[in-house]
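I'm stuck. Please check this protein.
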Amino acid sequence: MGRKSDRKNSNKNKNKKGHSNDAANLTRRILQFLDSNYGEEFNSKQIIKKLEIRDSLSKGGVEPILSKLLASGHVSKNPRNYYSSTKDPSFIIGTVDFVNPRFAFVIPDDPTENDGDILVKEADLKQALDGDKVRVMVNPLKGKFGKSEGRVLEVIERDRDEFVGRVEISPRFAFVVPDFKKMHKDIFVHRGDLLGAEHNQKVIIKLTEWREGDKNPTGKVIRVLGQAGLHEVEIHSIMAEFGLPFEYPEAPDAEANAISDKITAKEIKARKDFRGIPTFTIDPADAKDFDDAISYQVLPNGNLEVGVHIADVTHYVQPKTALEKEAYNRATSVYLVDRTIPMLPERLSNGLCSLRPNEDKLTFSCVFELDIEANVIKHWIGRTAIHSDRRFAYEEAQENIDNQSGDFFEELTILNNLAKKIRKKRFDHGAVNFETVEVKFKLDEKGTPLGLMVKERKDIHKLIEEFMLLANKYVAEFIFKKNKGNDTFVYRTHDSPDMDRLDTFSGFAKRFGHEFDIENERKISEALNKLMDEIQGKPEQNVLEQLAIRSMAKAKYTTEPKGHFGLAFAHYTHFTSPIRRYPDMMVHRLLDHYLQGGKSPDAEEWEQKCVHSSEREKRAADAERASIKYKQVEFMSLAEVKDYDGIVSGVTEWGVFVEITETKCEGMIRVQDMEDDYYEFDQKNMRLVGSKTKKMITLGDKVKVRVVNTDIDRRTIDLEFADNDNKKPRARAFR
């Protein structure tokens, strides 16, 4: 009897405990749901439905739990018996990164305000688009992926309201399908707002309206570019997509044309005269804007004097002029596959400022006295006048060194030897040797790619690079040392790499069979250089170089006198390319100001200019990459139908990126097209794993692929594995 009684009491206690656990779990779920949907109100029936509560006991417990939460102050109730969370969210201002059609991330302006980016579902974006500045409400609790989640409350500032896209016309209405990959909405256009655009033409469209509740924004065509697929149309599309100007405005162009090309004797007298010293320029064969020249002479004491002479652009481009305003707005020249979009009008870039041979030119110079071991004995910085004796193309100058004959071959040879010694010292001091692969296309008169070649960097390229780096370094150090870094100046800085990123990169390198030791932080550059030497000429060279660069911090312009990790310089600036970079003009202005005894100006104004210049630099790089990608897609659409050797350059949950070894073009094999198995993404190890076969596709794998589709609008190349025997090859499709 006693045992039965004990068992009964035990079961009774267990049931009480079970009910207690169930109630606590349900309370937690209800509170978490309301907290995660801050600002919204739900009645008990809606909560039961949202939480998918099905058993009658739990359903009956919802109202009592809500009453307890109300009494404890965790929730509030309105007169209609709707409940909401009382927990305070945080409100953050940030920028939208619209990564895919389903959700975006908001990157906080102040990283300290939130632990990482905030995930916002597409339905909660309040019509925000990529790049928009928004105010977002962050939910008090983390989402199921461990990330902060929230919703946009307002769009503070649109990043852009103009897009490039292809027109699709139906009998009653039309849409523009944007080229921009992060614009996931087609734009509705009334037939009367097409500006005469026809089906499948490329246009620039401006957003005019996006009413709440409408799935798509409305816009009107403001410029018709032409038929999609034509070279000129596609290049103009890229220019418009990145907000690059189509022509130079009249006012600054007129100012440039009005500038006299005469150099007065008074101006020459105010400068150090180098016109009698042997001087030459070395540039690409097709260059017209020569903004640097080198002079060379042997001094009476046996040392060597090397002058780095830079076009004195700020002599011609004066503050508060239309020329200055336009140069600042552009901030950089942009180099697309078939053209240059210059920062300065042609009258300046190819004429007055260009250091053309056999002409007197005004320059800003950094002149070095070097011993035979390339040690800098002393240097001088100031305004000069030069007269270039010879214009070399890189190939010509290299040939003179190789053959030990031709114009200035002795001077070129000595300069080359000095440059090699300077370069060795730089690497011994900790500089990183990034020799990235550059692809150049050979185009016919219509812009069709006939072939591509990998640009080869020879000694002559490195010669010019070393002397330009030396001048940039000494100018930065000269200003920093004048007043212990307290004078406002424009520096080019590069932070030390993040060790977590480097650790990830180390794992990538190992998959290619290369060791990359990062245990000693002080020897990171040494380990990187060893790796870069190992991969020279190997199929994985381009992939690993790009992965290494992505693991590094981004270089930027700033008034903060920080160092440059990649170059191993304590201080560095950009002084040597004022024809094509606005920061170099800023440096020239500040440098001259200090040389004239001027006091340090307000740093904030110059910092804003630095930020603007860094943003414009990124825009230019993105546009240049887009133009190269367009030609790669077009090239592969015309290439021979065959199987190509490739290397897996990236793995994501939606596909595998493969770089074709022969052409350096990258395409994707979509997971949905891999029908031999169901593949799951292993993010930690950056690989796809077949659920049945356990076949692994990993970064660095050597594969064979074939092209199945190219899309010029989206600038994508679709591939498939050539050794996939479970399916027949698809017919190639091209747009």
Notes: The CA atoms of residues 274 and 386 lie 5 Å apart. The longest strand covers residues 376-387.
